[in-house]
């Protein structure tokens, strides 16, 4: 691992622990050249699961892209980053468990909307507006009414 301060490739692991419900490993490292301490994360990357977009384009499933979408919907809302990570992890596990090779973006969007509906209604409406591609204010109002 390259030190972010001096670029040296020699370091030692000071501490290692499981994170995200044993889905990843967090490692504290110390550079042997400059003594700078930094953190790295290690996790399994499944590159065989593809997301089928509306345009029929296929791309690799990306947990970080999923997390960013949830985080954007929750921007300036009273939602902890740990809660966003928890939802991202649960959705990722569910998609990987339920689908072998391909999953539609519509299915992922539906699952994200359900999780956000339970977490924060404003975040839910924000995500729904992008996911469902609302054309006007009336569609917003209809979605908000449906929440009640």
Notes on the structure:
This protein has 2 domains: 11-43; 50-147. 45% of the residues lie in helices and 22% in strands. The protein has 5 helices and 6 strands, in the order βββββααβααα. The chain has helices at residues 63-73, 81-98, 105-119, 121-131, 137-147; strands at 11-19, 24-31, 37-43, 50-52, 58-60, 102-104. The N and C termini lie far apart (51 Å). The model has no long low-confidence stretch (mean pLDDT 89).
Summarize the structure.
With 148 residues, this protein is of the alpha+beta class. The protein has five helices and six strands.
Give short descriptive properties of this protein.
about 150 residues, alpha+beta, 3-stranded antiparallel β-sheet, 3-stranded mixed β-sheet, 6 strands, elongated
> Which regions contain 5 or more consecutive residues with pLDDT less than 50?
none
- What is the percentage of strand-forming residues? 15-25%
- Note the overall shape: elongated
Helix content class: 40-55%
Number of domains: 2
Secondary structure category? alpha+beta
The Cα radius of gyration reads 19 Å
The tally of beta strands, per DSSP, is: 6
Characterize the biggest β-sheet: 3 strands, antiparallel
Strands across the major sheet, in which order? 1-2-3
H/E element order: EEEEEHHEHHH
